[in-house]
Design brief:
The chain has 132 residues and is α/β, with parallel strands linked by helices. Helix content is 19%, strand content 32%. A hairpin with a 5-residue loop joins strand 3 and strand 4. Helix 1 runs antiparallel to helix 2. The radius of gyration is 15 Å and the shape is globular.
């Protein structure tokens, strides 16, 4: 049932969907796949971002009536395998769009990339290695 064509969605709470969008779309370069067009009482506000025609996306949620404070740990990682050293222009753009460059909890990630916390504190690793 699950194979390489299975689509994956990762959902995370966010305190500020506009800040998350700036980071993941304007900073990282993902595309908005879908977003709530207007506030509907009793429903969450949603922002879905991912690569064009990709097999995965992030669903960022915000419930204005009962907000959930994100609780990322130092090991909650979103790792992107670039196959080359992270471009400093990209790192700078992520910081300019709300990210914070941080030291990785696991030194492996500092040896093989750059770690940046998003506006909600979740960590993105731009890894110089490849997968597989």
């Amino acid at each position: 049932m699950i194979d390489s064509r299975t689509h994956v969605r990762v959902a995370r709470p966010s305190l500020d969907l506009k800040a998350a969008e700036r980071f993941y779309v304007d900073g990282l370069g993902l595309e908005v796949q879908w977003r709530s067009a207007e506030r509907v009482p009793g429903e969450h506000d949603l922002l879905m971002v991912g690569p064009a025609a990709g097999g995965w996306h992030f669903e960022l949620t915000h419930d204005p009536d009962h907000p959930i404070t994100p609780a990322p740990t130092v090991d909650d990682l979103f790792v992107v395998y670039l196959g080359a050293a992270p471009d400093e222009t990209l790192v700078r753009r992520l910081v300019e769009h709300g990210g914070t460059r941080v030291t990785a909890h696991n030194p492996y990630w500092d040896e093989h990339g750059v770690t940046i916390a998003d506006p909600d504190g979740y960590r993105l690793v731009l890894c110089s290695r490849t997968w597989g």
